[in-house]
Amino acid sequence: MPQLFRPSANSISRISIFGAVFIIASAIFLVIAFQRSSYITKAYVEVEQPVQFSHKHHVGDDGIDCRYCHTAVEVSSSAGMPSTQTCMNCHSQIWADSPYLEPVRESWRTGRPIEWNRVHDLPDYVYFNHSIHVNKGIGCSTCHGRVDLMPTVWQVASLQMEWCLQCHRAPEKFVRPRDQIFNMEWQPGPDQERLGRELVKAYEIKSPAILTSCSTCHR
User: Fold this and answer.
1) Are 129 and 216 in contact (CB under 8 A)?
2) Least CB-packed of 31, 55, 90, 170 within 10 Å?
3) Residues of the chain falling short of pLDDT 50
4) What is the pLDDT of residue 8?
5) Is residue 104 within 8 Å of residue 91, measured between CB atoms?
């Protein structure tokens, strides 16, 4: 019986199989990379605001505590946004005629609140509470980065589930003393895991089994 295929068909088939596997693996890699890119996560994308407010100046240079503007961060699911009154406490006297602050003065005259643009926006199907994280020893910079060095605030974390699970699986690596929650310069020391385990116990942080349960964040 004559041969139906030439000997070169064996090489072609091997190359075809390898090429198909390579293409499929590359496609999967590209999809995963795309899902983690700033285009999807919005990480490291500066968000313009109606007022040219610099956290670097107010927090880094002037030393204003986070809670002065975000008054609800310790008691509410939302950190809260500063009212126009909060801005005018200083700016009725300082830079009172600056053109950059005209949106603040207009808000003060009309009574209409300033419409700030959201920087960190979790999906609606995710439940997140600022107060529980703050009171359990998670500092601002752990999630928001060095805001005191940002002229314009951007999101430093992906906010994807795998990022959240890093902490929920091993909170001892991230928890800090409560008196350091609002210290932007705080860094974990070489004995962080030992200290973290002590704080996890002292703050009565739930076990990883509970923290990683679906119902913890999806309610």
Assistant:
1) no
2) 31
3) none
4) 67
5) yes
Is 204 in contact with 161 (CB distance < 8 Å)? no
What pTM was computed for the model?
0.82
Residues with Cβ within 8 Å of residue 122, at least 6 apart in sequence: 128, 159
The region, left, alpha or beta by phi > 0 then psi within -120 to 50, assigned to residue 44 is left
Q: Are 137 and 181 in contact (CB under 8 A)?
A: yes
d(CA 46, CA 74): 26
Within 10 A of 165 (CB to CB), how many other CB atoms are there? 14
Ramachandran angles phi, psi of 108, nearest 5°: -65, -40
**Encoded amino acid at 199, one letter:** L
Q: Output the pLDDT for position 164.
A: 96
Given a contact cutoff of 8 angstroms between Cβ atoms, the answer to whether 76 and 130 are in contact is yes
CA–CA dist 45, 39 (Å, integer): 9
Q: How is residue 27 written in tokens?
A: 């496609």
DSSP SS3 for 43 = strand
Residue 139 and residue 198: Cα distance in Å, rounded? 17
Whether residue 49 contacts residue 150, with contact meaning beta carbons closer than 8 Å, is answered with no
